[in-house]
Protein: Aminopeptidase N-like N-terminal domain-containing protein
Amino acid sequence: MKFLGIKMIFIIALSLMRSVVNSEETSDFKIPTNFKPVSYELNVTTHLEDKFIFEGVVCIRMICVGATDTIVLHSTSLNIDTKSVVVANCGENVIPVSSVSFDPDKELMHVKSTVNFKPCDEYLLTIPFTGNLTDDLVGYYRSSYVDKESNQTRCVIIKILIQCTAQVIKKYK
Structure:
């Protein structure tokens, strides 16, 4: 009888977690499933001498799963030159980008094309960016410590991946 009670509590807990995960509030922050990422190529240069900034380019290879004219990504605290964002199909033909916009409250970036992306086609999205190494302990940040032997302050650069859920890993594994 004790086992049955524990089993019921477990089932109720799973039901409650599912209702939280499926609520409209959390879905507002999820990116649409119109694209499946295939690979990411990230190049970052970090400037430590005087400015504590970084610059880079990310190239995201993805397959279109559902017809759409917009690619939606998570993005926050980056400076993106919207005129330099490029989308190309695998035949290396550039797809015209009509606009790049941001929703800072939801930390989303929208890349809108003048044409629809076709299901089963592969695309390459290239985004150049810059950003500041902050001391907020979030994302790509800097910190420092005092070296006991030399009594000098040393800089430490730390990159933290904040959003990596088991659901995303399972879905694209």
Q: What stands out?
A: Residues 78 and 131 are 5 Å apart (CA to CA). Residues 1-26, 160-173 have pLDDT under 50 and may be disordered.
